[in-house]
Amino acid sequence: MAIHQTALVDPDARLEEGVSIGPYAVVEGGVSIGRGTEVRAHAVIKRFTSLGQGNVVHEGAVLGGEPQDVAFAGGESYLLIGDGNRIREGVTIHRASKSGAATTVGSGCFLMAYAHVAHDCAVEDGAILANNVALAGHVRIGAKAFLSGGVVVHQFSRVGRLAMVGGNAKVIQDCLPFVVTDGVPARARAVNVVGLRRAGVGLATTRALREAYRTLLRSGLPLAAAVEALAASGEPLVRELAEFARSSPRGFSHAAAGAAGGETGG
Question: What is the tally of structural domains in the chain?
Answer without folding.
Answer: 2
